[in-house]
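> call design_seq(struct)
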């Protein structure tokens, strides 16, 4: 739209100057007023079918006639239409499978002096002869008072599932010992853990007995008691040294604990590896590469000490490096749990889903190590303590998947808009010839069958179903080739010789709808988990329409809308009315009617309609325009209509055509245009201030 503001301003200034000069001799109080006619072009446009149809859709035949060639999408099914990775949480519970404390040895010496002090006169003789060699008579029923065996610097209590205890007695006395009877008790509980007899330990020698401590409860403070021992004495004499002793050594080792309150050394409490199955997948995947999404991990611990975690997915790799994370958890309050929440971005990670043995699907190999570091603190840990690992994938989107996608049937029920007819409408349009290629592109590594039950074209008032042999028939589609990637294409021709496609397109439809189904892998897993897809893969059906613009039409409408800013012109408030002069140059072989529709952002405000018929351009015997036809039409705009036009922001030029001669197909050529120049004879009202 062009509005000639400079011309309008010049005419107004000239008129005002003349009036001022002529009125110089008037009396000041007469306040003259007058009306002025000013001509100004307000719209100049040239419209062609080529202008309102996207350039990419227009082709010119060798004779420069117009052909519309465009692709209209019928339906698209992408990877996520039939395969989604579930966000379901997976839980793994790990119990402590190895709880140990260090091997410990506790020693106690029972000296000859200690024993002699318990034996009355015979003992007094031994004590009195320290450093002398004297005969020692045989003695039986000797004993010693209980003594503590203190292991509380290592543990205070523990329950063993397995373990061993070595009791070693070294006889440093100058006499042989036999029938040595002893026991060990828990000091608080008082229960006997071991009671045993060493039959004979000669002087200067040692003997060891080993005991299994299966399902044994031990306290850190034990009590040992020498219940009896005998000696044949030394009739020929023996050197008395009251510091010589019976040396008792207690060693506990190879302990497997059920629970303990102890000073634990550094150790792995859990060292577990297993396959984790992705549940909820309808497909059998052997590989997936993540495009986006997160791994959410929650670790729950009942252990009452700081626990260090290492979690790895050896077969889940990014840039060749396996997924590996480590962290630590605070101690749990006794009888309670502690939680650790972690989030790991998974974009770019390649999941091998064949499991640890590489012979399954939907499974990935994982390892988890929970360890305890030596802290010097007395803590309680039980094999009843556990670590629960909850993990789930949040918004995980694959960029690539491989495996067997299963057998499925997808429902087709799609509606697609057709906007390529632009601003063209018609009450009766008959194209001479149309052909359409139904092209199905399969970019997914699966075989399929497509069955269309209906294909329907619709405008706002009419609908028409396609009549063609493909309706209700199986259309086989081959799988795409992965290396090098190549989609498969299946094409079917639809034209006026095998269908009613011309009648469908004569409706100038604004939508196409289809119904039917797509069968995925109808023959099953024929290639052994070799289906594949990427996030760009799709099964897409397009209608490639080839339409020569040769038709018979009545009331074929061609329109275009322009911005309109008459209200912002200088002195616009003084405009009373106008006479619009339409100069039209018709280059189409079509009788034409013109309608102008004025509107604002809300909707239509007014229109100019009912103008005289614009005659068709002259054509030769071949139907080609030889001479454009010029028409001039006047239209009076009264003050009421003028006010509505002044409020407008937009104006739509709408041309309605009828082909001439009636009933004859006419080709439309690229140089056909219809031009409109609108000139307004504005009537301005002025009052001299």
């Amino acid at each position: 739209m062009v509005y000639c503001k400079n011309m309008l301003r010049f005419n107004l200034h000239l008129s005002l100057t003349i009036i001022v000069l002529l009125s110089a001799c008037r009396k000041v109080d007469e306040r003259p007023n007058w009306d002025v006619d000013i001509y100004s072009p307000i719209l100049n446009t040239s419209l062609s079918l080529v202008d309102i149809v996207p350039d990419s859709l227009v082709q010119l035949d060798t004779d420069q006639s117009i052909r519309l060639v465009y692709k209209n999408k019928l339906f698209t099914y992408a990877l996520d239409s039939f395969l989604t990775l579930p966000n379901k949480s997976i839980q793994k519970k790990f119990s402590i499978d190895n709880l140990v404390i260090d091997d410990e040895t506790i020693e106690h010496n029972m000296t000859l002096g200690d024993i002699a002090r318990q034996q009355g006169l015979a003992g007094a003789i031994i004590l009195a002869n320290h450093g002398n060699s004297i005969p020692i008579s045989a003695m039986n029923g000797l004993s010693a008072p209980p003594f503590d065996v203190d292991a509380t610097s290592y543990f205070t209590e523990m329950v063993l599932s397995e373990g061993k205890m070595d009791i070693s007695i070294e006889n440093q006395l100058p006499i042989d010992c036999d029938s040595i009877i002893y026991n060990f008790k828990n000091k608080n509980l008082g229960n006997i853990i071991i009671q045993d007899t060493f039959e004979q330990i000669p002087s200067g020698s040692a003997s060891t007995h080993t005991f299994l401590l299966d399902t044994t409860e031990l306290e850190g403070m034990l009590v040992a008691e020498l219940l009896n021992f005998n000696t044949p004495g030394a009739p020929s004499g023996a050197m008395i040294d009251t510091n010589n002793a019976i040396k008792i050594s207690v060693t506990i080792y190879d302990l497997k604990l059920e629970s303990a309150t102890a000073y634990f050394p550094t150790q792995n409490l859990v060292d577990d590896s297993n396959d984790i199955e992705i549940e909820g997948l309808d497909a059998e995947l052997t590989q997936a590469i993540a495009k986006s999404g997160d791994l959410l991990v929650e670790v729950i611990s009942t252990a009452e000490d700081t626990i260090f975690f290492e979690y790895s997915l050896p077969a889940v790799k990014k840039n060749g490096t396996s997924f590996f994370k480590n962290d630590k958890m605070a101690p749990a309050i006794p009888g309670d749990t502690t939680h650790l929440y972690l989030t790991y971005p998974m974009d770019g990670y390649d999941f091998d889903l064949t499991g640890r043995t590489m012979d399954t699907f939907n499974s990935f190999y994982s390892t988890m190590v929970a360890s305890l570091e030596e802290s010097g603190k007395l803590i309680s840990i039980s094999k009843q303590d556990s670590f629960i690992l909850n993990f789930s994938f949040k918004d995980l989107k694959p960029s690539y998947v491989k495996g067997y996608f299963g057998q499925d049937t997808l429902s087709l029920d799609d509606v697609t808009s057709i906007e390529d007819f632009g601003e063209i409408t018609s009450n009766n349009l008959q194209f001479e010839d149309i052909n359409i290629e139904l092209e199905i592109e399969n970019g997914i590594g699966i075989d399929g069958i497509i069955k269309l039950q209906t294909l329907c074209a619709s405008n706002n008032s009419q609908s028409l179903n396609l009549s063609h042999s493909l309706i209700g028939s199986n259309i086989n589609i081959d799988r795409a080739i992965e290396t090098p990637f190549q989609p498969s294409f299946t094409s079917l021709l639809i034209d006026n010789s095998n269908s009613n496609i011309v009648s469908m397109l004569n409706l100038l439809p604004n939508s196409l709808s289809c119904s039917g189904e797509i069968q995925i892998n109808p023959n099953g897993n024929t290639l052994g988990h070799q289906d594949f897809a990427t996030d760009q893969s799709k099964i897409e059906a397009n209608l490639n329409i080839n339409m020569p613009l040769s038709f018979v039409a009545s009331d074929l409408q061609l329109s275009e809308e322009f911005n309109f800013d008459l209200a912002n012109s200088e002195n616009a408030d003084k405009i009373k009315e106008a006479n619009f002069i339409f100069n039209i140059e018709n280059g189409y072989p079509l009788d034409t009617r013109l309608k102008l529709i004025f509107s604002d952002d809300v909707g239509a405000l007014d229109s100019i309609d009912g103008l005289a018929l614009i005659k068709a351009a002259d054509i030769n015997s071949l139907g080609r325009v030889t001479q454009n036809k010029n028409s001039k039409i006047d239209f009076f705009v009264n003050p009421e209509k003028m006010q509505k036009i002044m409020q407008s922001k937009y104006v739509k030029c709408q041309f309605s055509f009828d082909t001439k001669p009636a009933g004859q197909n006419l080709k439309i050529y690229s140089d056909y245009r219809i031009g409109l120049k609108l000139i307004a004879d504005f009537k301005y009202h002025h009052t001299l201030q």
